[in-house]
């Protein structure tokens, strides 16, 4: 038996999303072509746009298709920065939380090295929650110099839900656009783009039961964005490229299914998460839960621990050999031997941060998966601890 506990990295495609993908793959037609085949493909794209918008509380014109969450984040950060500094050259500061995904952090720091941006990393508390006081102080002092703010809706590693509404309220006083990476939140939390007050929001198909390689940036109509990709001028002129009709349709089906099931599924997953958290604490008392305590402040499908005296990679491989698949943190940083920037920003020591494991649940998760982890974990931690002691100088 394999217990897959890495849904935050990617979750299995929903069978109906697979069906939609396969059905559309047989279609011929470029959605930008004017003949009958092109118009048919365009109809699928626009119906999918309407469905995604309806399920995420947006207007169809807000939805810009991308190749995934990373591209959408890049378009938001770079596109907003360039458009704002073009209109108001004094606005060169980019405010991002210190626990953002690298798809936000890396474009921001690239802008610092290539375009003269001034990056401000907003601090977080020990649970990984944004320090609103620090944001307020920054805006009070230099709000007229800020080009944009990007704060993720929920953290991909430790599951912390961020105070997005409070960020938007503070930013509005200074006319600053706010972007939020909602890749982990969509499908787990109630998302309504219009009522959130956000200017832009990122979602990705493969976190929701859709295919890898497609996502969207929701950007309110009228928001000025400078294009990152140039070509045929598709997607409001800010995201050129031939539209992938089949993945878009599959993405829309996955969003529909995930959002419709969310009220009941979030409760089920929170129950499994609570069982997992309580079980790990009982089986390995020295393990430390990172992020908020289970509740509304944490994603229902996320549990993240550090295990003193252990290396996360050792724990991961030992669990994998027993058929239990999890992660040391963000899959985008897998294989990189360095502690998580999210944990370090939350005040965790580098030594402790090296012993991190993230367990994330999804549609296919069962009580048996949790039980398999709990049965294997004590021996795995004992072996990893012994290996760590043997490796110590």
Could you please describe the fold and organization of this structure?
The structure is a single chain. This protein has 393 residues and is of the alpha/beta class. The chain folds into 2 domains: 3-10 and 262-391, Aspartate Aminotransferase, domain 1 (Alpha-Beta Complex); 15-256, Aspartate Aminotransferase, domain 2 (3-Layer(aba) Sandwich). Helix content is 43%, strand content 12%. It contains 12 helices and 12 strands. The chain has helices at residues 15-25, 36-55, 69-87, 102-115, 132-142, 164-172, 193-196, 245-283, 312-320, 341-345, 350-353, 367-391, and strands spanning 3-4, 63-66, 93-97, 118-122, 146-150, 178-181, 200-204, 215-219, 288-289, 302-306, 324-325, 356-360. The strands form 3 sheets. It has a 7-stranded mixed sheet with strand order 2-8-7-6-5-3-4, sandwiched between helices. A 3-stranded antiparallel sheet has the order 9-10-12. Strands 1-11 form a two-stranded parallel ribbon. Strand 6, helix 7 (193-196) and strand 7 form a beta-alpha-beta unit. Helix 2 (36-55) packs parallel to helix 8, helix 8 packs across helix 12 and helix 9 crosses helix 12. It is globular. The model has no long low-confidence stretch (mean pLDDT 95).
């Amino acid at each position: 038996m394999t217990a897959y506990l890495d849904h935050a990295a990617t979750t299995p495609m929903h069978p109906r999303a697979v069906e939609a993908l396969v059905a559309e793959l047989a279609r011929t037609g470029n959605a930008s072509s004017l003949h009958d085949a092109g118009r048919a493909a365009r109809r699928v794209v626009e119906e999918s746009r309407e469905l995604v918008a309806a399920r995420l509380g947006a207007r169809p014109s807000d939805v810009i298709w991308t190749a995934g969450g990373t591209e959408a984040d890049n378009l938001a950060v770079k596109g907003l920065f360039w458009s704002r500094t073009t209109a108001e050259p004094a606005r060169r500061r980019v405010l991002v939380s210190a626990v953002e995904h690298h798809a936000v952090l890396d474009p921001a720091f690239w802008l610092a090295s290539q375009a003269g941006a001034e990056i401000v990393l907003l601090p977080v508390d020990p649970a990984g929650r944004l320090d609103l006081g620090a944001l307020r102080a920054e805006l009070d002092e230099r709000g007229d110099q800020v080009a944009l703010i990007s704060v993720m809706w929920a953290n991909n590693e430790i599951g912390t839900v961020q105070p997005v509404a409070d960020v938007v309220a503070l930013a509005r006083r200074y006319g600053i656009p706010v972007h939020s990476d909602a890749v982990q939140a969509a499908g787990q939390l109630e998302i309504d783009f219009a009522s959130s007050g956000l200017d832009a929001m990122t979602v990705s198909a493969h976190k929701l039961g859709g295919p890898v390689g497609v996502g969207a940036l929701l950007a309110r109509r009228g928001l000025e964005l400078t294009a990152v990709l140039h070509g045929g001028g598709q997607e409001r002129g800010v995201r050129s490229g031939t539209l992938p009709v089949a993945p878009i349709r599959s993405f829309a089906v996955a969003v529909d299914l995930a959002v419709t099931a969310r009220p009941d599924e979030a409760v089920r997953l929170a129950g499994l998460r609570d069982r997992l958290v309580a079980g790990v604490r009982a089986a390995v008392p020295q393990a430390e839960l990172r992020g908020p305590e289970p509740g509304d402040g944490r994603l229902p499908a996320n549990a993240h621990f550090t295990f003193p005296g252990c290396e996360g990679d050792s724990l991961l491989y030992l669990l994998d050999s027993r058929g239990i698949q999890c992660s040391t943190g963000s899959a985008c940083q897998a294989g990189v031997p360095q502690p998580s920037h999210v944990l370090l920003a939350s005040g965790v020591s580098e030594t402790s941060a090296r012993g991190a494991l993230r367990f994330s649940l999804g549609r296919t998760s069962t009580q048996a998966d949790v039980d398999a982890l709990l049965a294997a974990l004590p021996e795995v931690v004992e072996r990893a601890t012994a290996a760590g002691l043997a490796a110590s100088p």
